[in-house]
Design a protein that fits this description.
Layout lengths: L4 E3 L1 H13 L5 E8 L5 E7 L8 E5 L2 E5 L1 H7 L2 E8 L2 E7 L5 E2 L5 E3 L1
Parallel strand pairs: 1-6, 2-5
Antiparallel strand pairs: 2-3, 3-9, 4-5, 6-7, 8-9
Length: 109
């Protein structure tokens, strides 16, 4: 079931670096909340661990965890970390998203 979500090596490396600086486990939690300019928005944060019903995907020793409600909206997605002239950020490539905003932090289905 872990193939329902993918964390790229670039994203795993960034999560590991952030976690090390904050002395936390290398676990990135992705969740989806209502809001944003397209209806839903992605939320990222370090987590202390996975909950019992979370989906867990692992890349290079870094875990990506998602709750079941959010998973319904992001299944099949890839989480990447991109750096550009405009800044650096985690980016979700969501095959379910029918619409998105320019900044990439919100989406519609």
């Amino acid at each position: 079931m872990a193939d329902m979500l993918t964390l790229t090596p670039a994203a795993a490396k960034r999560v590991a670096a952030i976690a090390q600086k904050q002395a936390k486990p290398a676990i990135l939690r992705l969740s989806v909340e209502g809001g944003g300019c397209s209806g839903f928005q992605y939320r990222f944060g370090l987590s202390d661990g996975a909950e019992g019903d979370d989906l867990v995907s692992e890349t290079e020793g870094v875990r990506l965890v998602v709750d079941p409600v959010s998973l319904d909206l992001v299944a099949g997605s890839t989480v990447d970390f991109v750096e550009s002239l405009g800044g650096a950020a985690f980016k979700v490539e969501n095959p379910q998203a029918a619409a998105g905003c320019g900044c990439g932090s919100s989406f519609g289905i």
